[in-house]
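Sequence design from tokenized structure. All designs in this work follow the same two-part layout: the structure record, then the generated sequence. An example of the structure record is given first.
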């Protein structure tokens, strides 16, 4: 493994809550989102052994910033975690990539000299704050000008997933096979203790609640299409209605937090860097297909890093829907055997604002467990965007 320089952005800690079912009755439903995020923040600094007075900022991702997740949850959560009043916090929304973007902003601040110690984090309680709850009845967040640009109208993400499956020719069996494999890998990782170092149990939940051991293609095959729409069928006759609850990420509750410092600050504070943030980028993509941005984002981050696909040892690609990852692998040539080796969001869950930091936390640990050097993380985002980040494990 390589060393690191004074102004490198290095990861010195990463922790996450277990992911709970994002519905009433889920194990984390009774935990308020600010408390859910405060849990990961507090556990992060406790494990790192730092005094939070040294933290320059907390950048938190949250998608549905209304109700229990309103009023700058990043600041509220850090105060709930017991951080000093002097620590600021902000909340950002880049849809599903919100906390991955928080990591990028934090790293950029470190490299630029604006931060020495910063936390990038994220939270989403989909059981308490349903997806789309921030779009009020009668409101129009898209605007008339956007409607004129796309006169036929854009579509929900589930329809975008159907369009991707149709365009790349994936069968229902292929989608379900990928999804069953995600559960199999996540169940094995849980059983083998591969998530133990990253998990901070909460509310009696010590492991991810949604993983279903024993999931098979046969059990998934009985599920009905989740997004069938007669009007959409008329508009897009190529759709075969293959997307189900089984090959989509489930509604989820969770939080995650990553502690990032400069190389100089890590040495000065006696912290052990786990990885350095090598390169990060973000792209826009077709808002109709919406979820394909992971393909150009991967190509762009590799180009900026001066690395080839073969240099990457492990990939974390958010499993918003099975065809997203399969199309990404088909277009980039990435090896699915190196992708989401401990399972992905179809099995573990996708608490929107937390998922970027969750993936980083899992990737850091997977690189360590497997003795690998480079990891690449990417995720699709609402509106047609994607973040991509390369991290390098430090010895």
């Amino acid at each position: 493994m390589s060393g690191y320089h004074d102004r490198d952005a290095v990861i010195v800690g990463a922790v996450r809550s277990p992911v709970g079912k994002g519905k009433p009755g889920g194990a984390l439903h009774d935990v308020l989102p600010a408390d859910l995020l405060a849990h990961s923040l507090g556990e992060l600094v406790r494990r790192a052994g730092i005094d939070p007075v040294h933290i320059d900022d907390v950048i938190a991702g949250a998608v549905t910033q209304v109700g229990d997740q309103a009023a700058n949850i990043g600041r509220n959560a850090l105060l709930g975690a017991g951080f000093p009043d002097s620590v600021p916090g902000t909340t950002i929304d880049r849809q599903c990539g919100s906390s991955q973007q928080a990591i990028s902003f934090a790293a950029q601040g470190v490299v630029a000299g604006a931060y020495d110690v910063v936390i990038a984090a994220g939270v989403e309680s989909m059981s308490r704050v349903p997806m789309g709850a921030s779009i009020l009845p009668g409101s129009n967040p898209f605007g008339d000008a956007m409607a004129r640009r796309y006169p036929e109208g854009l579509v929900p993400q589930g329809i975008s997933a159907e369009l991707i499956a149709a365009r790349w020719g994936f069968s229902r069996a292929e989608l379900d096979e990928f999804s069953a494999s995600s559960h199999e890998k996540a169940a094995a990782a849980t059983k083998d203790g591969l998530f133990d170092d990253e998990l901070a149990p909460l509310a009696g939940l010590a492991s991810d609640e949604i993983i279903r051991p024993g999931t098979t293609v046969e059990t998934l095959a009985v599920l009905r299409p989740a997004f069938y729409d007669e009007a959409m069928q008329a508009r897009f006759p190529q759709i075969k209605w293959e997307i189900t609850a089984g090959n989509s990420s489930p509604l989820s509750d969770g939080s995650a937090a990553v502690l990032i410092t400069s190389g100089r600050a890590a040495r000065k504070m006696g912290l052990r860097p786990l990885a350095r943030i090598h390169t990060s980028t973000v792209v826009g993509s077709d808002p109709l297909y919406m979820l394909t941005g992971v393909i150009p984002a991967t190509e762009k981050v590799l180009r900026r890093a001066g690395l080839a696909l073969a240099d990457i040892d492990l990939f974390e690609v958010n499993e918003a829907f099975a065809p997203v990852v399969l199309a990404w692998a088909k277009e980039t040539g990435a090896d699915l055997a190196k992708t989401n080796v401990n399972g992905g969001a179809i099995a573990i869950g996708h608490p929107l604002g937390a998922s970027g930091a969750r993936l980083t936390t899992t990737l850091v640990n997977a690189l360590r467990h497997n003795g690998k050097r480079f990891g690449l993380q990417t995720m699709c985002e609402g509106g047609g965007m994607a973040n991509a980040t390369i991290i390098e494990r430090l010895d």
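The radius of gyration is 20 Å. We note this feature because it recurs in several other targets discussed in the main text.
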